[in-house]
Amino acid sequence: MGWRVRGVRGATTVGANTYEALERAILELMEEIEAQNDIDPREIVSATFSATTDIDVVFPAKIARSRMHWENVPLLDVQQMYVKGSLERCIRVLLHVNTPLEQHQIKHVYLNGARDLRPDLICAQI
Q1: How far apart are CA 10 and CA 94, in angstroms?
Q2: pLDDT at position 122, please?
Q3: In this structure, what CATH number is given to the domain that contains residue 65?
């Protein structure tokens, strides 16, 4: 069918609102998304990160940009909408990627406490 732009979702949680905890979690999430979907970072069209209001020590995109071949990826950080009782200290990402995979072949990655966000994707979780 050829290459198309596909959406790849992921999310994770952190135990603390510290730079170190966020760096560890975001790098782990990005590495796992790339590995599970055989993504070459040079094929990433853009990425949007959202963070819950209790994360305020660093922009997730700043950490992602430190990765090899991410320096030219258009990145955006937004604040996740607050919903009473929702998951705390959560970072979500939506990548738009050029890939030969069909949308149903994409593996969305939910780590740590974020696994509860999409129990329907249990087979895609690690």
Answers
A1: 7
A2: 54
A3: 3.30.1330.40
